[in-house]
Recover the amino acids of this structure.
């Protein structure tokens, strides 16, 4: 077991973890952050995407010990004071989700994308979300939502 | 029928944003894998690496001794307890099927079949111990090719004595629905057009994003089962039937479910085994599959070989179609495996009115993962066949692909139309949908550009693909299901509870997993009862809350379940009438219901539904002549299927030097009848298109010569990403269905059914002048390039 201290969604946690524990399992099982989900075992689907020190990572491709001393933001850390984050609002307004399983990862990756490129074209969004699979929407409304959030200055 | 854009009411037709989103965009979700119960144990499965083998020994000693392990169970350990998994549809009385154990006892019939399980304190310990289990196998020759399977040269289940499960035929002459197809073929051979074609519908994997997960809490009073399923009501009944637990002691909950597409329309080995583990240990148990397990062991879809013969006159009038198909069941029959080709069998005539039709379907077993419903279930296979044939016919006649279709399709004034396959199409307007698609697509301009590129020998050629489809939706009239050999019914149930504070609970037997029923059902009830959209709560997916229901699949939810909701609302209004009369001291004949209020005709006097609900709650002023309750139930069995349709046009650029294809534009005009929520409908179309395009271009479940699934992860099984797909132009025409009160049809599968042939037709159209008349799916760059090389040689 290894002791780690991680700040997750604004709160600090110190825990003993097995060295082999993936960050996503630490988040879900030890911290109860079940908003972040697991969709594959090959880092292809992006469902588990979170932010590590403000940049998107697939939390299945990191060990929990690698997050020691770092700051993690999950989908559960976005809405504040009962208000949806502009990106969450844009997904809702544009019907960018159906079953919603990929949505947390998709939203976290979208935020990373518009942080890099505040005015992405359709192609920019399509390429920027290439690592996040959705089986329901055909992506069209996701692209629309990301561009709408970008236009509304949703990067912050 | 005429096309109409009428919007009779306020909520129905409104693109309401979804109620479901609040929890889904914030991560406050209820996936089964999120559930943690005190003392909960975790399961890991050991699966056969061989497609076909005998189990000669299993050594579990090391696993049993491993840390955290509570139990290790093999097929032999639970042989007397596990029963057999059901198949619910005997398409012929003499249908053959091997016994389908949840855990193999001595024979494994596909790679991925469960041979042992570990129950441990946590998932990591369960997985570690599973690795310690040593299984000895004696390999047997696997049956992997469906055509070879049909010859019985080698058997997938030696004990069964044959690979053939069933042979089912339809003939229009003997059914009295049309003429003799052989006569049509002879006539075409003598002096018409005869097109013979073989099509391989490749094997696909539904690949819902949420892997399946099950949690079972076994208390003496009740076995509570959470499962990521489309069909909680089925799961409840089958747990009772298979494991002998009284149905009254089982509660099945489908909490948030992350997609299904037919892939979660199943009663699974994993469900049975998790119940067994919980029952044996007396502790809550959880099993969550990995993606690799899901791709290997959750049922697959499609996988047919078709031999098609189309007869036509030289002018392009179709005179008959003969279909011989072999469908791969895989290793076992699941819930409705054997009926999937049947659901297509009635649709090979598509939107056309040709006079003769014959189909012979042979269902065979192989040593692969068993197949079952996948979005469209039989209808994509049929639609692909007829729409590819219509393009080939157009090419033979030298006519435009749309013109040849129009020549053969059912005209809008001919509905209702009795088809050669024996169905009655309720309504449609193929002319209107096609005209709209043609305009949005700029069909004539693209044809002109295509010609130009052909003439200039441009290395990048342009192809235009047409798909005019229809499908049978709204599964299904119970009488029809019974006549076809299905053990269940096709009705749906709804309840409405009028709460004292004016709020309304709607309980539906449908079980949504992304379709937005909470929103759409609220819209229906808001209009009917005249209550606010936000005052309505829709409850579903829990057999204790919604005890009656037949769940969500086959584009049935709105046309059957939504109509049950409407019928329940009408009963509430009916029940409220005598109560309103008492309270308003009026004659029932003087009451009228409008805008959520019973008013006394010609006066200002009246009561809203909320006021009535509160008065009923108090009961103070009721005289006992009418039951003091507004709540109502309704069970609705659909009168008939509904038949959505549409015209899809796809432009594809093909690089003739590399075989690379790129969809330049895609227009879909769908007519799904009256629309409750156009935003949700558009979303369903988008997702459907993506899955149909994925079959055309990307996806295939590939096995190697030993029967191992090569495409066993998302590295190889190519679910398209955002970068692989274009934006779509979608539009609608609206021809109300005549088989239900609201005139709705169903949209869940339409996009998937229509888009695959549109894309492949476009690819072939781009390179037909280079000698190509077909490209097998998925049309990868290599396959397109190869077809071009072969075309150049011929």
């Amino acid at each position: 077991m290894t002791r780690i201290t991680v700040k997750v969604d604004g709160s600090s946690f110190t825990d003993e973890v097995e060295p082999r524990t993936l960050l996503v399992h630490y988040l879900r099982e030890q911290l109860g952050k079940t908003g972040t989900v697991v969709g594959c075992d090959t880092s292809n689907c992006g469902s588990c995407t979170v932010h590590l020190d403000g940049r998107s990572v697939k939390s299945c491709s990191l060990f929990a010990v690698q997050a020691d001393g770092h700051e993690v933001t999950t989908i559960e850390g976005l809405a504040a004071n009962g208000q949806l984050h502009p990106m969450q609002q844009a997904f809702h307004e544009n019907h960018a989700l159906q079953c919603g399983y990929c949505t947390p990862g998709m939203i976290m990756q979208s935020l990373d994308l518009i942080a890099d490129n505040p005015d992405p074209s359709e192609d920019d969004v399509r390429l920027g979300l290439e690592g996040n699979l959705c089986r329901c929407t055909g992506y069209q409304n996701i692209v629309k939502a990301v561009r709408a959030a970008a236009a509304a200055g949703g990067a912050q | 029928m005429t096309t109409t854009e009428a919007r009779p009411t306020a909520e129905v037709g409104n693109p309401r944003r979804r109620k479901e989103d609040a929890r889904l965009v914030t991560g406050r979700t209820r996936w089964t894998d999120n559930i943690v119960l005190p003392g909960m144990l975790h399961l890991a499965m050991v699966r056969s690496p061989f497609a076909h083998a005998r189990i000669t020994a299993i050594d579990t000693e090391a696993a049993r001794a491993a840390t955290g392990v509570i139990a290790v169970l093999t097929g032999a350990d639970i042989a007397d307890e596990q029963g057999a998994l059901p198949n619910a549809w005997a398409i012929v009385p003499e249908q053959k099927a091997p016994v389908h154990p949840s855990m193999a006892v001595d024979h494994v019939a596909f790679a991925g079949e469960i041979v042992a399980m570990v129950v441990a304190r946590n998932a990591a310990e369960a997985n570690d111990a599973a690795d310690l289990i040593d299984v000895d196998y004696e390999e047997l020759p696997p049956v992997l090719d469906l055509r070879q399977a049909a010859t019985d040269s080698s058997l997938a289940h030696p004990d069964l004595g044959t690979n053939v499960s069933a042979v089912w035929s339809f003939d229009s002459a003997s059914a009295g629905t049309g003429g003799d197809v052989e006569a049509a073929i002879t006539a075409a051979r003598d002096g018409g057009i005869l097109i013979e074609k073989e099509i391989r519908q490749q094997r696909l994997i539904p690949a819902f994003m949420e892997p399946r997960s099950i949690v079972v809490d076994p208390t003496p009073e009740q076995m509570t089962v959470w499962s990521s399923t489309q069909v909680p009501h089925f799961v409840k009944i089958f747990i009772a039937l298979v494991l002998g637990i009284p149905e009254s002691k089982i509660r099945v909950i489908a909490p948030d479910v992350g997609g299904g597409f037919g892939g979660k329309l199943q009663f699974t080995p994993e469900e049975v085994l998790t119940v067994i583990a919980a029952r044996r240990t007396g502790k809550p148990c959880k099993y969550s599959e990995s993606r690799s397990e899901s791709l290997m062991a959750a049922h697959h879809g499609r996988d047919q070989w078709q031999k098609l013969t189309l007869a036509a006159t030289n002018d392009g009038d179709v005179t008959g179609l003969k279909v011989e198909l072999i469908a791969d069941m895989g290793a076992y029959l699941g819930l409705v495996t054997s009926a999937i080709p049947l659901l297509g069998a009635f649709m090979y005539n598509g939107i056309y009115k040709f006079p003769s039709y014959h189909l012979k379907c042979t269902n065979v077993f192989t040593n692969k993962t068993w197949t079952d419903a996948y979005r469209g279930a039989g209808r994509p296979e049929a639609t692909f066949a007829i729409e590819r044939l219509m393009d080939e016919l157009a090419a033979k006649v030298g006519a435009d692909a749309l013109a040849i279709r129009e020549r053969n399709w059912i005209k809008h004034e001919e509905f209702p139309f009795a088809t050669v396959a024996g169905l009655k199409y309720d309504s449609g307007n193929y002319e209107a949908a096609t005209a709209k698609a043609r305009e949005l697509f700029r069909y004539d301009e693209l044809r002109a550009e295509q010609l130009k590129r052909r003439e200039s020998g441009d290395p990048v050629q342009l192809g235009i693909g047409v798909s005019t489809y229809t499908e049978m939706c709204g599964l299904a009239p119970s009488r029809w299901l019974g006549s076809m050999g299905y053990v269940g019914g096709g009705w749906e149930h709804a309840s409405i509870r009028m709460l004292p504070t004016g709020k309304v609970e709607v309980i539906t037997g449908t079980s949504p997993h992304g379709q937005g029923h909470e929103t759409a059902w609220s819209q229906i009830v808001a209009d009917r009862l005249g209550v606010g959209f936000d005052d309505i709560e829709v409850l579903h997916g829990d057999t204790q809350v919604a005890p009656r229901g037949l769940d969500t699949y086959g584009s049935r939810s709105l046309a059957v379940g939504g109509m049950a909701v409407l019928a329940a609302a009408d009963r509430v209004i009916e029940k409220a009438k005598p109560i309103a009369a008492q309270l308003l001291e009026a004659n029932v004949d003087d009451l009228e219901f409008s805008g959520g209020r019973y008013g006394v005709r010609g006066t200002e006097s009246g009561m809203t539904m909320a006021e009535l609900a509160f008065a009923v709650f108090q009961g103070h002023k009721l005289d006992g002549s009418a039951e003091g309750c507004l709540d109502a139930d309704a069970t609705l069995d659909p009168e008939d299927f509904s038949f959505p349709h549409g015209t899809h046009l796809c432009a594809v650029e093909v690089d003739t030097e590399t075989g690379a294809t790129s969809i330049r534009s895609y227009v879909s005009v769908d007519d799904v009848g009256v629309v409750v929520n156009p935003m949700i409908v558009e979303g369903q179309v988008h997702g459907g298109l993506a899955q149909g395009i994925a079959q055309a271009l990307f996806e295939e479940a590939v096995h190697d010569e030993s029967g191992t699934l090569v495409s066993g992860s998302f590295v190889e099984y190519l679910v398209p990403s955002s970068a692989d797909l274009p934006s779509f132009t979608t539009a609608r025409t609206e021809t109300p269905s005549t088989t239900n009160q609201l005139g709705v049809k169903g949209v869940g599968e339409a996009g998937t059914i229509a888009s695959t042939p549109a894309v492949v037709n476009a690819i072939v159209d781009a390179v037909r002048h280079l000698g190509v008349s077909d490209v097998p799916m998925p049309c990868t760059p290599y396959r397109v390039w190869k077809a071009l090389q072969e075309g150049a040689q011929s």
Q: What stands out?
A: The domain at 2-75 of chain A is CATH 3.10.20.30 (Ubiquitin-like (UB roll)). Chain A touches chain B through 56 residues (CB under 8 Å).
